[in-house]
């Protein structure tokens, strides 16, 4: 404690995470381009910075939760040159899911200015962010990780140090392969059950109880049967994550046909209004049959 | 009770199931083409029939666990004409996984002779068969199902009546889609983790704990990390089941790209020695990278 946190990127996830840090007593200064998003945090005791640069200049640890890699690059090294305002010896923590190689590039560029960087993508969605029960997968220097462990523990339950810069992001990519294919497993089994005229509820009970069981089957399938395709996790974000998976696997010379198929399917889904639905809305691609 | 059971098809599963029925006190007569497979059952009190026809002639309920549809067709309607030996009013229960439409055909042909038929494929593998903890998915007439419920309860824990003839098999097809794609989810995430140089054990802990979690992840991934690709469930049987899935989904006018990919992958695996490994040996297809 004692250290002062900056927070940039106050979407649904970022706001919930910043709130948890304030509740745990951390001094926190927040900046968001849409100023109204800092109002709720201000009531909880956050300072509001008038610019990203002033946010960066007055904190020891800058927490970033912007939507993607390019927006983080622009924040740090673009016209606002926020990285220039960071103090030498301060630490940047990137909670966003970005490409592992981009995390490495950012960490290297910050390192040249004497600034530490951890990549720390999360899983657990908006509920995990609210309940401080996120899984956080961290890459960077072990010593820097140890220094910020208290911050991670204020936000999540399962905190895993995965190795050097980029390894947190790589673990997230690994995780998203399994999530996407689990959604497909759940989806295609429900589609066949419905079209074959089986009782879907009876089918779901069997699917949950044996070797077909999964988090997806237990959590998403009931939502689908009740007609609820609203996001927990956005389909468009799954597409972004799968694009990262394929770039990284190709760079390693790997062929992952399952992940590749899932990228194509989410691409089709996201060409329409499905982009703004939950990732379990994959079943919309099959609904001309349902 | 009181009814006499016949049992034909004493592989690993069939033998374990017959043993459970004997232990529960059912009179049981067994037949197997390889006679040595009836020896252990004989010690537990089973009669041994000298032919399939004599087995059929002396039982009230004939339980069949042969490997596939054609072998069941041949048993019942081929040269040995076992169906001719069945008494009118007796019941055939098919535990094998066969095509739903083949189950319908067999039930219709038996029905013309006044013989009842239930399709009752199981899941839970050799361990479920031994522990009498199988899931059993049953199709046929409800009244006939009710009459044989005691037999099913002697063999399994989750007994589900799914509807008319073929619906048990259709439920099994639905289940196998989810199993196969869950195996792919587990496999491709482990392959990327390994090739990216992540600690696989640490990665597995994260994969099990969130939205990537599945029965496959918790049960197969640890076996893979310890180098154990031995079958619980054979890869060649997964291929057979996926072929059934695709025939049925095509007949319904459905396109299931995930199931289709899995069929192709298991076909590649089964062209080599992978056929005799467990279905989690799918990772062998990726090992030139591992």
List its traits:
three-stranded mixed beta sheet; globular; six-stranded parallel beta sheet; homodimer; Rossmann fold; 13 helices; 290 residues; alpha/beta; N-(1-d-carboxylethyl)-l-norvaline Dehydrogenase, domain 2
Q: By CATH's scheme, which homologous superfamily of the largest domain in chain A applies?
A: NAD(P)-binding Rossmann-like Domain
Strand order of the largest sheet of chain A: 3-2-1-4-5-6
CATH class of the largest domain in chain A: Alpha Beta
Structural class label of chain A: alpha/beta
Description:
- The structure is a homodimer of 290-residue chains.
- By secondary structure, chain A is an alpha/beta fold.
- Chain A has 2 domains: 160 residues, Rossmann fold (3-Layer(aba) Sandwich); 119 residues, N-(1-d-carboxylethyl)-l-norvaline Dehydrogenase, domain 2.
- The first copy, chain A, is built from 13 helices and 9 strands.
- In chain A, the strands form 2 sheets. A 6-stranded parallel beta sheet of chain A has the order 3-2-1-4-5-6, sandwiched between helices. In chain A, strands 7-8-9 form a 3-stranded mixed beta sheet.
- In chain A, helix 10 packs antiparallel against helix 11 and helix 12 packs antiparallel against helix 13.
- Chain A is globular and about 65 Å long.
- The model of chain A has no long low-confidence stretch (mean pLDDT 95).
- Chains A and B meet through strand 9, helix 9, helix 10, helix 11 and helix 12 of A and strand 9, helix 9, helix 10, helix 11 and helix 12 of B.
């Amino acid at each position: 404690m004692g250290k002062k946190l900056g927070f940039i990127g106050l979407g649904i996830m970022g706001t919930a995470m910043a709130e948890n840090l304030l509740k745990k007593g951390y001094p926190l200064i927040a900046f968001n381009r849409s100023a109204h998003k800092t109002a709720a945090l201000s009531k909880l005791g956050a300072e509001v910075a008038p610019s990203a640069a002033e946010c960066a200049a007055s904190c020891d640890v800058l927490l970033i939760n912007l939507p993607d890699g390019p927006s983080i690059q622009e924040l740090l090294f673009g016209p606002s040159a926020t990285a220039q305002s960071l103090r030498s010896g301060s630490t940047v923590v990137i909670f966003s899911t970005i490409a592992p190689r981009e995390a490495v590039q950012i960490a290297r560029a910050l390192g040249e200015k004497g600034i530490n960087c951890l990549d720390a993508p999360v899983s657990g969605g908006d509920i995990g962010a609210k309940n401080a029960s996120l899984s956080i997968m961290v890459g960077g220097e072990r010593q820097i990780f140890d220094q910020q462990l208290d911050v991670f523990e204020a936000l999540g339950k399962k905190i895993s140090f995965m190795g050097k810069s980029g390894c947190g992001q790589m673990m997230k990519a690994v995780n998203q392969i399994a999530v996407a294919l689990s959604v497909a497993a759940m989806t295609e089994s429900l589609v066949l059950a419905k079209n074959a005229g089986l009782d879907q509820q009876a089918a779901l009970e069997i699917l949950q109880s044996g070797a077909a069981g999964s988090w997806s089957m237990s959590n998403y399938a009931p939502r689908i049967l009740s007609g609820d395709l609203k996001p927990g996790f956005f389909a468009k974000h799954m597409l972004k994550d799968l694009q990262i998976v394929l770039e990284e696997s190709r760079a390693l010379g790997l062929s992952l046909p399952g992940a590749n198929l899932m990228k194509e399917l989410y691409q089709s889904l996201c060409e329409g209004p499905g982009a703004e639905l939950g990732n379990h809305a994959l079943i919309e691609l099959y609904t001309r049959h349902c």
